[in-house]
Input
Amino acid sequence: MDPALGPPDAMAEKRDELTPMMAQYHDLCARYDDAIVLFQVGDFYETFCGAAERSARILEIALTSREDSTGEYPMAGIPIDNAESYIETLLEAGYRVAVADQVEEPGETSGVVERAVTRVITPGTLTEDELLASDDNNFVAAVACGSGDTDAAATADAELALALLDVSTGDFLATSSDSREALADEISRFEPAEAVVGPDAPTALCPDGCMVSPYDERAFDRELAGEKLSTYFRNPDALLVSDAEIRACGAVLAYAEYVRGGAHEGERGEGNSGDTDNADSTAAGSLEAPADGTHLEYLTHLTRYDPREYLLLDAVALRSLELFEPRGVHGRDDATLVGVLDETSSALGGRKLRDWLRRPLLEPARIEARLDAVEELTSAVQTRERLHDLLRNVYDLERLIGRISRERANARDLRSLHDTLAVVPDIRGQVADADCERLDRVHENLDPLDDVRELLADAIVDEPPIEITEGGIIAEDYDDDLDELRATARDGKQWIDDLEARERERTGIDSLKVGHNSVHGYYIEVTNANLEAVPENYQRRQTLKNSERFVTPELKDREDEIVGAQERADDLEYELFCTVRREIAAEVERVQALADALATLDAFVSLATAAAQYDYCRPEIVDRDGSGQASGRDDDCSDGRVLEIEGGRHPVVERTQESFVPNDTRFTDDRRLAVITGPNMSGKSTYMRQVAQIVLLAQVGSFVPARSARLTPVNRIFTRVGASDDIAGGRSTFMVEMDELATILQEADERSLVLLDEVGRGTSTADGMAIAQAITEHLHDAVGATTLFATHHHPLTELTDTLEGAFTLHFEVEQVDGEVVFHHEIVPGAASGSYGVEVATAAGVPEDVVERSRELVGTAESAGASALEGDSVNSQSAAGNDATRSPSATADGGDDPTDIAAELRALDLAHLTPVEALTELDRLKQLLEE
Output
């Protein structure tokens, strides 16, 4: 076991002899044995023993020690005021953190100060702004099997359910599937930071980077999970369709309550985020009734969805298409699709846009409704720009109302809510005359919450302090009692301000001063030279080196009056603030509905801004029955497949390059598989990705980078693009490629879009060619998907003679003075060669290597010319048998694979990684030795 977790062994051996404070630490570590316990001691959070040694290394802090009657223990601590940055580092190191706060005032207890874990901080349940890495959703997931039977879960058709909860915003989603692969794809789509997995569900479904946290298996019990759900939703059986979904949703709620802790009775919080929720938290995984404050009052909606309602993008496609993260190690952070499209003004809009990109639509009517909104805002320039400016004043209402409901919001949070509500009427006015249904619906849902805004305006000062227990947050004239207490304190302070002038005149001591400090209160200070003039009613309070400080009975009375009034005023302000906060929390559903409307509008404005700024066009969505939704014209293909793009551009690449060459695309049922050839760097991969991204954008409801676009929605985008390996998992580049291809061949259908780039690398040329040909034929004959296949296996182009739905495209290049010039323009037909050596020259490969490569290629061509004349065509028509290994089945048309010259000729030098090149060289050497 990790020595940083659980009760320290050194303490466990002497548990009964430990001091009360160290015994508290030991017991909390035992109760929260899956987390590092941060134990408050004064102004620091301390760790001891193994946790201290580990924390000191991770956080780069000093390792000290603490000694008691039982021995000396290593100790390391972090300042409470700056704890968040250290906690973030512990989370990144893979630890969960249990924060044990003092829940008693030290001066109010005669024994050891009581401490309790007030929150367990985990990657998937963060709510603190300082810890949340971005404005995007931060999900914790739960995975459960429907039957609750471990043996049943092992079967391929066992139903599995997924629940996703963002504790910071209240977003709550649920779905299920009888396919492990489909559920794994959904988990990858949302990228949860953390997951709890039922005892009957496979943990392998969770992707790398998702922390799988232990939790009490009873949370997944069908009855207990249903009871937990019923505390949030009146009839959970009507919201969810299966026991698996109920078990997953109930478990994730129980886990969220467990990590959030509860409010310790009678205690007031301190700190930058308002008052702390203190509680004697139950032990890890306890399913007893939660302590007060653990219930997530702001969680008001549960959305159950069917993955089949959306275009599916698995982890491979998300990565290949660079939706959210650039693929290149040295790529620009904004060189992503969301980086291009995200012109949102608020965190709300940014999350909504990312959700749309994760889940593009399938239903043409819903897509068209979004396109109508984008088109209206694109053409209404002044309205769009005015909305963009107004939305900048919108705070993150979802996270705000979450903090308010959890009673962790401070007065500044409430002012942020007020300031957002103040701009809603203007935003609403900008869409009051909207023509399209989606914008009209947004207008209806933009509730300005006038009553809430007026309450906040009346109750909270314009610029409140961070602290909520020290006064200065409630506005004048809001509460008569508070005004009276403030007047008393103010009048007393004025009396003291006037006291100095009065006493100087009465005593004749011109240097007399009236002052105040936190230890001795108010005093009258007289220098030693004037002590003889001190009146008899002065009572000595403090002696200094050059002066004496005095107090009078009247000053003491005034001090008691001022301090008493101020303390009562501060207490009353806190009570009034909490009351206002609770009143706002009661309007959680209204605030969340407004937040959704603002998020939707911001996302539409963002898409419209990108469309106008980058010259995008509205795509025409064609239903599967062949009818064009936008124009009503009939499609010319037999059963509705159409993908026509004129002047298409890659939305990301064109933003990072000085110039970009647009290209056309046309697929129908008669033209459904394109074999694309051309040299490296000519644009094959860029072209394929741009087609996929244009399709994806269209189904999001966005305008697209093209002169025109017309398409039927696809149900899934598959990608096999780029070389990658999984060394830790024991998979070579070739094995990763084969795994991804297996998924495509098993799950794709005629409504899918498939991108394949250089299939068949990492093995012998003959094997690679055979695999590529067999896959091409299978995709054409059995799957029927719309396929773009970029390859250096030039013999594949001859398959278009026998596959009626296949056609060839290539990127033109020309040689000028021995150098390759790329035009990046795609045209019909096959490329004349791969120009591998020329591309190697352009890449800066040493000249002697290039010249030697040319010699070898020339030798191979001469040696293979006669063989090519004799039987180069023989192997192209026999798929799936030994003919695929015949003389022409090599990468660039070489003859016998055992002929070393032909093998060298077939090598695509520029496309091999260094490891692949060395492997191929070793293979050829072995052939020569044999």
User: Anything to note?
Assistant: Residues 553-585 form the longest helix (33 residues).
